[in-house]
Amino acid sequence: MVVLDVSVVNVALPAIRSALGFGDADLPWVAGAYTLAFAGFLLLGGRLADLRGSGRVFTAGLALFTVASLAGGLAADPGLLIAARAGQGLGAAVLAPATLTILTARFPEGPRRTRALAIWTAVSLAGGAAGNLVGGALAELLSWRSILLVNVPVGAAAIVLARRLPAGERREGRLDLPGAATATAGLALLAYGLTRAAPHGWGDPVTAGALAAAALLLAAFALVETRSAAVPLLPPHLLRLRAVTAGNAVMLLTGACFQVPMWYFLTLYMQDVLHFSALATGLGFLPHTLLMMIVGLRVTPALMRRTDDRTLIVAGALAAAAGFLWQGTATAASGYATGVLGPAVLVSAGGGLLNTPLTTTVTSGVAAADAGAAAGLMNTAKQAGGALGLAALTAATAGRGGTGRALATTCGHAFLIMAGALVAVAALALALPARRDAAAARGGTPPARRDAA
């Protein structure tokens, strides 16, 4: 639900505008309010799981997300819908790090944790790819309200199942409120500035002001974390682990290709160049989802017992780069088979190869007391990468054309830039410490600890 709701409303925006009387300037906030709150509160949500117990925080985030979904589905005016979407984003920011914290606390490093993280990654991939499919199907068959209301029975069932989870250990210490305030405000302004940059440009005064304020607040956050008497939101010693620092840099750059931009430009290509309907576009994404899940669930965990994570990340990034390079050559005459399906094989195989090793590396060598902080940081890097990537790519391709053959060229340029970014991912991944499941399973010292920067 958390990942699906990032994109599920996109195909229903015209219907929402007509039903609630949204103006053109306000309509983007139906999607933006969710991503803004989600990105802004992830660090806080991760640390709450450490201090208040991951099971308790998971259930609270799930309840908030479900109630906000109900409020959004029943909203009668634009303000209520935007507020409900922000409430969903806040619930998601609490829920997402807690899910990862529960897994890393339950499974020690080694093949069993890798298997758990492979399933976690596959579910996230399925949610991201299913957003347009589910949104298109529900919008065409029922109404735009069903896109939000469908979360209510799913969330209620999940809350019942969540009672089986251990509550988690409550730890002594005060939450770092100054750090929470500066980090949340800084990340929210960063997400707002990046979101606004796409339609208004980097020179827009509001965009520039938001990004400048974000930089100041994040600098203040860094200062607070080194001097806080409370439990820091992002412990400085966590950043001394090379797996965490280099891994999150790789995660940021990977998110700038996979997290949002790939789905965005593929949607444009299929709907406005190949003239697919919303439902057909959603179905067009199925090969990406299925292949990435098969590789991630079946192939990658087995390879991780025999091959360093770093090697798999490099190989996956280069395979995906080749796929985006192919995708970048697609024209209006290419059709679905050669314009989407062929590149999807390489892109999805590469994504399936690199996602689980990268998630495992970023969370390796982290003490149990900091598992939530590490999960919040990883999710923040991924979400910020998606927002930054989309803003940068839309700015880089602005003015290249907006319909038919010209739009195919625009999308092609975006995919070529993604290919270059993934080559950079492969190069940056060489800075990661070597790690293999077989070594972790024998009970050795996690490489991330030995290779602390």
UniProtKB/TrEMBL annotation:
User: What are the protein's UniProt keywords?
Assistant: Cell membrane, Membrane, Transmembrane, Transmembrane helix, Transport
Q: Give the UniProt subcellular location, in the record's own words.
A: Cell membrane
Its protein name is MFS transporter
To which species is this protein native? Actinomadura nitritigenes
Which PANTHER family does this chain map to?
BLR6921 PROTEIN (PTHR42718:SF46), MAJOR FACILITATOR SUPERFAMILY MULTIDRUG TRANSPORTER MFSC (PTHR42718)
Residues spanning the membrane: 27-45, 57-76, 82-105, 117-138, 144-163, 175-194, 206-224, 245-266, 278-299, 311-329, 414-432
Key word Transmembrane helix present: yes
Q: Which InterPro entries match?
A: MFS, MFS_dom, MFS_trans_sf
Task: Classify the main location.
Answer: membrane
Residues in Major facilitator superfamily (MFS) profile domain copies: 1-437
Regarding the membrane, this protein is recorded as: Multi-pass membrane protein
